[in-house]
UniProtKB/TrEMBL annotation:
Belongs to the binding-protein-dependent transport system permease family. HisMQ subfamily. It comes from Rhodomicrobium vannielii (strain ATCC 17100 / DSM 162 / LMG 4299 / NCIMB 10020 / ATH 3.1.1). The lineage of its organism: Bacteria, Pseudomonadati, Pseudomonadota, Alphaproteobacteria, Hyphomicrobiales. CDD domains: TM_PBP2. Keywords: Amino-acid transport, Cell membrane, Membrane, Transmembrane, Transmembrane helix, Transport. This is Polar amino acid ABC transporter, inner membrane subunit. It is a multi-pass membrane protein. It is found in: Cell inner membrane; Cell membrane. The keyword Cell membrane applies. One of its GO terms (cellular component) is ATP-binding cassette (ABC) transporter complex. Residues 76-349 form the ABC transmembrane type-1 domain. It holds the Pfam family BPD_transp_1.
Length: 357
């Protein structure tokens, strides 16, 4: 009887698999047939054609004569920039608010709880519109800019001091510093030394270009356009509310006796949290944290709502409208987000395995 039941389950699963394969084949055949009837040539040859449009923010050179393939790279890099900065800010804010949720100070706990309840219950798109239309677009023009410590803020964007000459070395130093914190102790010293060397070299090569308000514009400095500032702020603040709850739950999962034992050894509250409680809480924090990082990366596609030139806006928007290559463009766009999600999940799964080891 057991063998008969096993055989029946096998044939049922095989039949379902065959049905799914047949349905997929029919969909592909139908799509291919319909595409053949359209006055559009299927393929990726359009990527080598000139785009004919410009982009407001680019990390690589781009103009009207650049190709659609280069436009794809511009959008991809802008998406990666938003995701990386958004994840970093959301992590810092989220961990800070999560720890504050359990602080002994009642006022601090109330403020942290209010933050979580407010931003978790607001739609992300509404929050994005608030920062863009309600805050940044209402700022004064350059003549009445807000200036503080070399930072200028107006309706043209946020202007920061620009470390010209050694910017890439600064990024390398930050990357090595992050590696030093993530790697095991025997490799940590090498990454730390590399970070120190890169930072010293950057300081030696760098000269700071300060922004300066001049009439109707701002000269010098590093400009962050309003669309970028609004998008990063909305993503970071919104995601941080969820990360804060994850951190709070992770900390509460650690037995109270751990903190009491740390206090008995003479550690302060912050030292106990840093060296005793948080390392144990990370075992439960990292898996759900992965989902929040993935959500932030995918939610960055809302940039199209405020015309920030990310991958969806440039490639799945402008490029699609001009070329009509809908299947290829959407397939490439979905492939990028799938790859980013899988890469982020793999990295955090590796970190989770390392924490549990």
């Amino acid at each position: 009887m057991e063998e008969t039941g096993r055989a029946a389950r096998f044939w049922i699963q095989a039949a379902l698999l065959a049905a799914v394969a047949a349905l997929a084949g029919w969909l592909v055949f139908t799509a291919w047939t319909n595409i053949g009837r359209l006055p559009v040539h299927f393929g990726l040859g359009f990527l080598s054609e000139p785009a004919g449009f410009s982009v407001l923010q680019t990390l690589i050179p781009f103009d009207e004569k650049s190709t659609y393939g280069r436009a794809f790279m511009v959008g991809l890099l802008n998406t990666l920039l938003v995701a990386a900065i958004g994840i970093a800010l959301a992590t810092v804010i989220g961990f800070s608010v999560g720890v504050a949720r359990l602080a002994p100070n009642r006022l601090l706990r109330a403020v942290a709880a209010g933050y979580v309840e407010l931003f978790r219950n607001l739609p992300l798109l509404l929050l994005l519109f608030f920062f863009y239309f309600g805050v940044l677009r209402q700022l004064p023009p350059p003549r009445q800019s807000f200036e503080l410590g070399g930072v200028i803020l107006n309706n043209r964007g946020l202007f920061l001091p620009d470390p010209a000459g050694g910017g890439w070395l600064v990024l390398a130093a930050l990357a090595l510093l992050a590696a030093a914190l993530a790697l095991k102790s025997r490799w940590r010293i090498f990454a730390g030394v590399g970070a120190a060397v890169a930072l010293v070299s950057a300081l030696a090569m760098t000269h700071i270009v300060w922004p300066e308000a001049r009439g109707l514009s701002v000269s010098g400095g590093l400009r962050l356009i309003p669309e970028f500032v609004a998008l990063v702020a909305a993503l970071a603040i919104y995601t941080a509310a969820y990360i804060a709850e994850i951190v709070r739950a992770g900390i509460q999962s650690v037995a109270r006796g751990q903190g009491q034992a740390a206090a008995a050894l003479g550690l302060t509250g912050l030292q106990a949290m840093r060296f005793v409680v948080l390392p144990q809480a990370l075992r439960l924090v990292v898996p759900p944290l992965t989902s929040q990082y993935l959500n932030l990366t995918k939610n960055s596609s809302l940039a199209v709502a405020i015309a920030y030139p990310d991958l969806v806006s440039i490639f799945a928007g402008t490029t699609l409208a001009q070329t009509g290559q809908a299947v290829e463009i959407m397939a490439l766009t979905m492939g990028v987000y799938l790859t980013l999600s899988l890469a982020t999940a793999a990295l955090l799964n590796w970190q989770n395995a390392r924490v549990r080891a």
